[in-house]
Design goal:
Helix content: 25-40%
Number of helices: 4
Number of strands: 6
Distance between the termini: 30 Å
Structural class: alpha+beta
Order of helices and strands: EHHHEEHEEE
Largest sheet: 6 strands, antiparallel
Length: 162
C-alpha cells in the first residue's frame, strides 16, 4: 500500500506538490444510487415533480459540483476539466442510478470530481423530491473506474458502467 502523501514530516496536512508529475489524459467514473418509494421514481419519470425537471436539474448540479470540487475538498487541486457527463438509469421500481464521467488532461486525477458530481446530483434529487418522499436514501457512492496517471488504471470488478 502506498504511503499517505497529504501529510508533511511533522504530520500536518498539506496539498501534494504535483509540479514534477507528467501531464496525462485522465478519466474517472463514479456512481451512486438514490433509493426511494416506487411512486416517487414514477413521478420523476413522468416529470410531475412540482419543482421541475428533476433529472435535468440534477445533471446541471453534478456538472457544477465537479467544476467546484477543489472548493469543497481541502486538499484537491483546482483542475481544468475537459469534460463532465452525468447519466441516469433506474431499476424500474425504486432505485435511480447516477453516474458521472469526468475527463481532464493534467497532472492529477479526477476521481474526487466524479465522486463529488454524483453526490451533488443525488442531493439535488433528494432536495427536489423531499416534499413527497423524505425517506429517500443516497448511496452507496463509489469509484467505478479511473484511467491515467502514475498509479495506472483501476476498474471495480463488480460493476459495469451505465
Amino acid at each position: 500500500m502506498e504511503s499517505l502523501t497529504h501529510f508533511d514530516e511533522q504530520g500536518r496536512a498539506r496539498m501534494v506538490d504535483i509540479s514534477e508529475k507528467d501531464v496525462t489524459k485522465r478519466t474517472a467514473i463514479a456512481r451512486t444510487a438514490v433509493t426511494m418509494r416506487p411512486e416517487t421514481l414514477q413521478t420523476i419519470k413522468e416529470g410531475r415533480i412540482s419543482k421541475g425537471d428533476v433529472l435535468g436539474v440534477a445533471q446541471v448540479a453534478g456538472i457544477m459540483a465537479a467544476k467546484q470540487t477543489s472548493a469543497w475538498i481541502p486538499m484537491c487541486h483546482p483542475i481544468a476539466l475537459t469534460g463532465v457527463s452525468i447519466a441516469f438509469e433506474d431499476n424500474g421500481h425504486d432505485e435511480l442510478y447516477i453516474e458521472a464521467t469526468v475527463r481532464t488532461t493534467g497532472k492529477t486525477g479526477v476521481e474526487m470530481e466524479a465522486l463529488t458530481a454524483v453526490s451533488a446530483a443525488g442531493l439535488t434529487v433528494y432536495d427536489m423530491c423531499k416534499v413527497i418522499d423524505k425517506d429517500m436514501v443516497i448511496g452507496p457512492t463509489r469509484l467505478i473506474e479511473k484511467t491515467g496517471g502514475k498509479s495506472g488504471d483501476y476498474r471495480r470488478n463488480d460493476e459495469k458502467s451505465i
